[in-house]
Amino acid sequence: RPKSNIIKYDSSRLASDQDVQTKYQACLGKLISSTLKTSDEPNQQLATIVECISKSAVQEIGIVKRSTKRAHTNDPQVVSLVEERHKLRLLLNNNNLCVDRKVLRRNINQLKRKINRRLKEVNDQIAETLAKEITSTDSSRRMFEAVRQLADRRTPSTVSVTNDKGEIVGSDSVKAEILRNYFEKQYNNGEEPLAPFDGPPKPLTVPITPIEVEAACKKLKNGRATGPDNIPNELLRYAGKSYYSAYANMINQSFETNSYIDSIGQGIITPLQKPGKPKGPLKSLRPLTLSNGVRKVLSLITLLRIGHKMDRYTGPWQAAYKHGRSCNDLVWCQRMLVSVVQNRHWEFSKMGIDMSSAFDTISRQTVLNLLIDAGCTEDE
Questions:
Q1: Closest-CA residue to 9 (of 300, 299, 293)
Q2: In angstroms, rounded to a whole number, what is the distance separating the alpha carbons of residues 100 and 91?
Q3: Minimal CA–CA distance to 232: which of 40, 33, 32, 58?
Q4: What is the pTM of this model?
Q5: How many other CB atoms are there within 10 angstroms of residue 253's CB atom?
Q6: How far apart (Å, rounded) are the C-alpha atoms in residues 238 and 226?
Q7: What is the pLDDT of residues 215-247, one digit of tens each?
Q8: Most exposed among 59, 83, 163, 360, judged by the fewest C-beta atoms under 10 Å?
Q9: φ, ψ at 63 (rounded to 5°)
C-alpha cells in the first residue's frame, strides 16, 4: 500500500491519557448508535464501524504529522553545531566575495565533520548501553527488546527476488506478483481452500458476547503494525462497550446468515530476508502477515474459548503457545540440565530440531481434526 495514503493516528496519546480514552469512547459510542444499522449485512456493518472508529480517532486523538527530517537527535552539542552551520549557510548564500565564500565553505565543512563525529559518538553510546542491558538483565523480555532496538539501528536492505530463470527482478510490481503467487501456493500446500461455512445458516450454540470481545481486545498489544484497514490495536483496545456490542452482534449475524466478512481474510504480506540464507531464492524469505483488527479480535476470542482444552490435550511438556508458558520454560530446562551435568561431571548430548517453514505448510484439515480430537465443540 502507498505510504503517502496511510493516516497515522496518535495512538500513543490514547494509551497514556485516561481523559482521551473517555472522550474517544463517548464519541465512538455516539457515532455507532446514530449510524450503525443492525439490519445491514455484516460487511456493511463492519464498514460503518471502521468509519466510526476513524472519525472518532481523528476528532479526539489526532493525527501524527509526517516527518520530513531524515534524522533527528536531541543531543545539545549536535543541535548547537547544526544551528551554527545553518547561520554560516545563510551567510554563504548572501555573500558574493570570492575570498569570504572560500572561508565560509571551509568552516561549513569543518562543522559537518564535527557533526558526523558527534553523531557517531552518540550512536556508539546508545549501542553500548543496549549491549550492557543485554548482558546484565535477567529479564528475557527486556533482553529481547534491547536486541530488537540494537538490530533496528541497521539500515534495512532491499528484498531480493529471482524469477524462474534465476535472474534478479528489479521491478517492485513484478516482485509483488511473484511473491503473491509463491506464498499463495505455499500457504495452500496443495489443498483446496476451506469453505467459510459448513452446512446451512444457523446461529452459534453459544453466541459471542460483548464480554468476550472486551477480553479479546484487552489482549491486543499496543504499538503493533496495522493491516489493510489501518486501524491500530489501541483504537480497538480502548473502544468501549458500544464497539464490543456492535462487534459481537456483527459476528453472530454472520453465522446466522452464512455471510462471510471479507476483511477477515485480508492481510498485508511483508517478506523478510532470513538471516544466513542466500539472497534471491524465494525460500530464503520469511512472510510476515499483517492482519486486520476484526481478524485479530476473532482469533483471540476463539483462542480464549479453546485454550483450556488445548492445554489439557497437549500436556505439560508443551511450552509454546500456552497460557502461562513461554520460551523461558525451555531456556530454564536447558540451563538446569547443563548445570546438573557440569556439577556431576557427566556427559550430555542434546539434539535440536529446527523445522523449516513449519508454520507456512500447516494442513488446515489436520488442525480441524485435532481440534475435534481435543474435545472442541462445533462452534469452536
A1: 293
A2: 9
A3: 58
A4: 0.73
A5: 19
A6: 16
A7: 999 999 988 889 999 999 999 999 999 999 999
A8: 83
A9: -115, 140
Cα dihedral value 84, 87, 89, 94, nearest 10: -160
3-state secondary structure of 17: coil
Sign, CA dihedral 35-36-42-46, equals: positive
CB neighbours of 194 closer than 8 A, spacing ≥ 6? 364, 365, 368
Classify 298 as helix, strand or coil: helix
Please list the alpha-helical segments (H only) found in 17-139. Answer: 18-35, 42-60, 76-93, 98-136
Alpha-carbon torsion (343, 344, 349, 353), positive or negative:
negative
> Which of 152, 288, 294, 148 lies closest to 220 in space, CA to CA?
294
Q: What angle do CA 238, 242, 245 make, to 5 degrees?
A: 110
Amino acid letter, residue 143: M
Q: List the beta strands (DSSP E) in the chain.
A: 267-273, 285-291
| Cell numbers linked to 300 | 483471540
CA-based nearest residue to 254, from 44, 51, 3: 44
For the chain, count helices (H), then strands (E): 13, 2
Quick check: 374 and 309 in contact, CB under 8 A?
yes
3 state SS of 232: coil
Q: What is the DSSP string of 148-182?
A: HHHHTTSPPPPPPBB-TTSPBP--HHHHHHHHHHH
Phi, psi of 352 (to 5 degrees): -110, 145
Nearest to 248 by CA among 27, 31, 35, 46: 46
Q: Which residue has the higher pLDDT, 118 or 153?
A: 118
Query: How far is Cα 269 from Cα 277, in angstroms, rounded to an integer?
Result: 20
> How much is the pLDDT for 68?
52
**Cα 98 from Cα 105, distance rounded (Å):** 11
Quick check: helix, strand or coil at residue 142? Answer: helix
Cell of 131: 549491549
Residue 180 cell numbers, joined:
503473491
Task: For 62-92, write each residue's pLDDT tens digit.
Answer: 888 765 555 567 788 888 888 888 888 888 8
The three cell numbers locating residue 272: 523478510
